[in-house]
Structure formats: structure tokens, C-alpha cells
Amino acid sequence: MKILQTDFFGDSNIGIFSKVSDKFLIIGNTIQDKEINDISKILKTEILKTTISNSEIIGIFSVINSNGIILPRIVTDSELKSFKSFGKENDINIGVINSVHTSVGNTILCNDKGAIVSKLISSNDCKIIKDCLSVEIDNSTIANLNSVGSCGIATNEGCVIHRDSEEEEINKVQEILHVETNIGTANFGSPFIGSCVIGNSNAIVVGNGTTGPEITRIMETFNLI
User: Fold this and answer.
1) Separation in Å, CA 178 to CA 13, 131, 144, 191
2) Which residues have a Cβ under 8 Å from the Cβ of 204 and sit 6 or more positions away?
3) Do the Cβ atoms of 65 and 133 come closer than 8 Å?
4) Looking at domain 3-221, which CATH architecture does it have?
5) Phi, psi (deg, nearest 5) at residue 18
6) Order of strands, edge to edge, in the sheet holding 24-28?
7) Is residue 64 within 8 Å of 26, Cβ to Cβ?
8) Cα-based angle 211, 195, 138 (whole degrees, multiple of 5)
């Protein structure tokens, strides 16, 4: 099985509450263990249960790939200590950016090959992102929006972005992330794919509202069929 449909707290926007790479899954403390184990099993990852700024919305407050974790300046000292311990144990970089745009998960779209960063992020923070994630980066919009992270979902196999993305944006994402990039939706028509889906090279997890055709498009793009 390469797909799982679920929700958290009755909310199909599962990308708000979790992030995943090919190596590890970050998810909120209050998600039930059975749900977490089911998700981790299909994605084949290690698990880090935590909060960021004492919040469960991990997907909004973090960006990850297999090399690193980007956190906002509002991460608490105790949370940062936990992240650094996890990073040391698993050879993962930890970076904190100082942007006033603390919803870093909404402003960065990445995989292990590259990162698309919102034009709202400063050059100093871009350097931190580049070094932490160990990838090339570039600035762009998606569908003329700065919320590039919530507008897409990327793995090392493919990327699906907002249905209203322009050809120039699609080409830019494809060039930087080095994977086939298509447009699409999830959760019965939502263009904010990053809020609805998490996935890696092994499988995808989608919100319960995601339709069959939406799932098929995502799985085809991610080479999971």
C-alpha cells in the first residue's frame, strides 16, 4: 500500500499538523499513537513528536528534508533543545530563521534536491535555509502567491502545485527541485496541496476529502503507481 487517507481532529488538512521527509516524520504531540504509527509505517520513517511555539501546527511552523529542519524564531528554548538532540542523533541540521513571517512551512517548498523560497524571505535567512537543507535555492511565487509551501507538495520523485500556477512558475519549480512538476488539487478541490497532503519517496498520506482522481494525479506524478 502506497497511500493512506486520514484526518487529524476531524480536519482533513493534515499537512498543517505534520511534515515528512524520506528519513523522518515530525508530528504534534496530541495526535493519537495509532494514527502516527500507521502513517510512519507507510512512509517508512523515524518519528519525532513535538510542538513548535507550544503549538500542534507543525506543518505551518517547520520545513524539512532529509538533511535538515528549518524552524521559526518563535520556537521555544526547550523545543529547540529537543530538535537539536534529535538532529545530533540522526545527523540532521537544525536551522532557525529570524523572519517575521514565522509560518515557514507556508513560505518554503523543498525536497532533497532544491528549495523554492518565498520572495518575502530575506537574503540572510535564505543562506541559513540553503546551508541547513544542503540544497540549491531560488525565489519564486506559485500561482502568483508568496505562500509557496502551502501551494505545493514535493518529494524526490515529483511535485504537485497549485492549479492556477503559471507555466513560468512550473518550469522554475521543476528546474530547482529537479523533479517532474504538475498542477493539481486535494481535499475535493483545494489548490493548497501542501496543507492537504504529506508524502515522501515511499508513499503519500492525504486528507479524507481527497478524491480518487486527485489521488491518481498525485501518485502518478510521484511515481507511486
Assistant:
1) 26, 18, 21, 22
2) 2, 3, 4, 197, 198, 215, 218, 219, 222, 224
3) yes
4) 5-stranded Propeller (3.75)
5) -160, 160
6) 18-20, 24-28, 46-50
7) yes
8) 120
25-50 pLDDT, tens digit each: 999 999 988 899 999 999 999 999 99
Grid cell, residue 106, equals 507556508
Q: What is the pLDDT of residues 73-130, one digit of tens each?
A: 999 999 999 999 999 999 999 999 999 999 999 999 999 999 999 999 999 999 999 9
Cα–Cα separations (whole angstroms), residue 48 to 3, 92, 105, 218: 21, 12, 17, 26
Say if CB 117 and CB 108 are below 8 A apart.
yes
Q: Which amino acid is at 165?
A: S
Count helices and strands in the chain by DSSP H and E runs: 7, 15
